[in-house]
Amino acid sequence: MSAMKPILRMPERLTLPWLLLAAGALFVSMLITKDHIEQVTSAQARQQLTADRQTLERALVPQAQRAQAVAQWLANKPLIGDMAQRTEAPETQAWLDEAVKTSGMHWAALLDAQGDPQTSVTEEVRTALRQNKAALRAHHSTSTAISIRQGQDTVWLWLHPIESTVGGLAGQVVLGQTLNASWRGSLSGLTRSQLIFLERDRPDGPWVQQGRSKPQAAASAWPSQEGPSQQANIRPLTLEGHKWLADVIPMVPNDAYNLEGMALVMDPSALRAPWLGLVGMVLPVLITAFSLGIAWSAWQGLRLRRGLVSLMRWARASMESNSVVVPAAKTILELQGLANDLEALRRHQKTLEAEIRQTAFLDPLTLLPNREQFCTRFKHLQKSGGAKERCGAVILVDIQRFKHINEVLGHQNGDRLLRLVAQRLNDLLTDKHEALARVGGNRYVFHLPQVSASGAVKRAQAALAVLDTPFELDDQSIDLSAQAGVSLYPDNRMDGHELLTRAEVALYAARHQHQPWLSYSPTMDASDPASLTLLSDLKLAISRNELRLFIQPKVDLITGEVTGGEALMRWKHPTRGMVPPDRFIPFAEQSGFVKQLSMWAVEECARVWLTLQLGGLDIPLSVNLSTRDLIDKDLPGKLREVVERQGALPQALVLEITESATMDDPESAHRTLTELHDMGFKLSIDDFGTGYSSLAYLKNLPVDELKIDRSFVMNMETDLSDAKIVRSTIDLAHNLGLKVVAEGLESPKAWKLLAGLHCDQAQGYLVSRPIPAEDFLIWARSWRAPSVSEEHLTTAFADIL
Ligand code: C2E
Ligand code: CA
Ligand code: CA
């Protein structure tokens, strides 16, 4: 499931980065937009303020200029300079009216040198002039504008000095205009920015907003003490907690007193509204688009995950089963393609596998199943196994002397013959559950899953019968002979290898007993399951130091002296205790492992021989070799090596070989034995009498000794025919110049009998059971031969001596 984890998190992994990216992008673009809007709107506000100042100036400045020009015109009239005449002159009033009309001011008057009006003015103007006499006096010699207070209003005065006709100053021309609410209202209409009128009581007094009562004015004192300026001066201004941009303009251009001003104020945030409206429209669109995008990728992630998970499940399931439907990754086309490709790949692999299996499991010569396939049949049967299948037979058919046929006819013809054999045997199969396989050069095996014991025997006989009919090969008639081994499985165990091994054991038994076929029985070998499991343990026995060598003494039948000893192997199994050689040597032979065992025994024997020598006991030791050892052509070299390694001599060892070992491949056995003999090893034929070899054959072998099998010796004192066989064997062996050893000496009577028959040596429980090698010296020192002179033999036995 570990590979699933990243896939399960796939939707998050696809969506989360998008989500973060979208949120970040939105945030940053909002910041940029806000900044930009502020810049743009403040620039707009400044532009507006500048334009509004210009508008106001265009309205005010020309009037001021006109007033100045008219005042100058009036002051320059010759009559006006004449102090005495001007008030009486009838033109004076007409000129004053003309001046008011032309300048656009509210009123015009002439002042005397003391600043008192000489022409008629309203009472209000007179009062105002009187109250501001000092200011008027201060500016009596310059042409200038000043503002003065008149009640709630401010009055704009334009002054111009009057030159006296007699020299010096003769007074002032004054043009006046009251800056009242309606006048201001006419100005307000000219600007787009807001107009706030400011005023102060005296030229250095604080500015307040006009029209406020005193306490109000204090509360909202104009925050900037900077009054109006002639030049544009736009600056930020906080008014009533709000941020504005403002520019303050003098109400009266070039006013010397500056009592009134106009603040043009503009709230840039008010300009932001349309922009914010735009953002308000765009933002939801963006957020919706992003959200849809993220939802889409999450959805795609989910689908991808679903697709991949089903692909993975499919991949796992298809490892276990053959018929798994490819998942339909419905909407994601690429995944569907991938699934199809994977399925194609899987099918391709299955085909390849099948091809490989075919080459691995078929015998290329006959196209029959090989040993592997034959054995796997049983696994399948075991899995599917009904009770019916659990009863059947394996029949192993062996073509005899096929090596010989190959040599005579040539390998090509040999192969043709093997194919013909395969055909004939294959024709014997009666239903599809039965099978025939070729399991070795000249070996075929039947598996008959549903036969009784007697049925199996009949089938084995039938197989041998079809091979009895001669084969025709290029006009040559060839006779084959075959033997069969049958193993039945009426029980629950059906391991193919095991059944085959049992059939092999039965076949060997048939061969040894000269029978055309035999059925397996447990007495035939040591290959019962317990032994089979022992094999793997046995392979470790040497390295774990579990093997022991026991020595059984051989004595001279005349002198009673110890003349030798036979080394016999014991296996001290960690859980099963002492395992006798009969329990493991036979299947060590089958598996070939016996060669290692033999090498161990020979080396150990050489070592023991040396210790006996050192202990003063100079006897040769016998060691057993198996058939497998004998067919190994490197045997002489290996033996020399281990013996030399222990510092022993070949003469110290007697190699015991059974008759049958020499019979399996007589020629190479002869070669090997000659080589061993030439190296100095003594050779002995073991278990003589149990095999089929004749003394005539043995005559040609370079052997030194012959051991009569214990089955003849153990009963010879009671079984006369055994005694006779022993006698003739001893005689013949002696004739061939061989020493004779009797095995299985169990009684003093047998000793007497053997001695009387001139048997040279004997070995048996009467003398001693096999003794642990390390105890042998002590035993030998204490050994005393029994006296057999008193033993009484019956007449029949005494007669054969
Ligand atoms: P074997 O070579 O014929 O060894 C003699 C067997 O007869 C021994 O059995 C011994 O204990 C037994 N024997 C000796 N005297 C008497 C007697 O008076 N009466 C009876 N009934 N039996 C007697 P063991 O030691 O069980 O060995 C059995 C077989 O195992 C040996 O038969 C031999 O074929 C094989 N074997 C033992 N050691 C080795 C070995 O190192 N290498 C090989 N290749 N085979 C071995
Ligand atoms: Ca032996
Ligand atoms: Ca023996």
Explain what the structure shows.
- The chain is an alpha+beta fold.
- The strands form five sheets. An eight-stranded mixed β-barrel has the order 17-18-20-21-22-23-24-25, surrounded by four helices.
- The model has no long low-confidence stretch (mean pLDDT 86).
- The site of one calcium ion (CA) has 4 residues, from loops.
Question: Can you summarize this structure?
Answer:
This protein is an alpha+beta fold and 801 residues long. 50% of the residues lie in helices and 19% in strands.
Helix content: 40-55%
Small-molecule binders: ligand C2E, calcium ion
Total helices: the number is 29
- Flag low-confidence runs: none
Q: Assembly type of the shown chains?
A: single chain
* Largest sheet strand order: 17-18-20-21-22-23-24-25
What class, by secondary structure content? alpha+beta
Sheet bearing the most strands, described?
A: 8 strands, mixed, barrel
The tally of strands reads: 26
Mean pLDDT: 86
List the helices and strands and how they pair.
Layout: H1 4-8, H2 10-75, H3 78-81, H4 83-86, H5 90-103, E1 107-111, H6 123-131, H7 133-138, E2 144-150, E3 153-163, E4 169-179, H8 181-188, E5 194-199, E6 208-209, H9 214-219, E7 235-239, E8 242-250, E9 260-266, H10 268-320, H11 333-361, H12 371-384, E10 393-399, H13 402-409, H14 411-426, E11 435-440, E12 443-448, H15 453-468, E13 471-473, E14 476-478, E15 482-488, H16 496-512, E16 517-519, H17 529-541, E17 547-556, E18 562-573, E19 577-579, H18 581-591, H19 594-614, E20 621-624, H20 627-630, H21 635-645, E21 653-658, H22 659-664, H23 666-679, E22 682-688, H24 695-699, E23 705-708, H25 710-713, H26 720-735, E24 739-743, H27 748-756, E25 761-763, E26 771-772, H28 776-782, H29 795-800
Parallel strand pairs: 15-16, 18-20, 20-21, 21-22, 22-23, 23-24, 24-25
Antiparallel strand pairs: 1-4, 2-3, 3-4, 5-6, 5-9, 7-8, 8-9, 10-12, 10-15, 11-12, 13-14, 17-18, 17-25, 17-26, 18-19
Helix pairs in contact: 2-5, 2-10, 10-11, 13-14, 17-18, 19-21
Bound molecules: ligand C2E and calcium ion (2 copies).
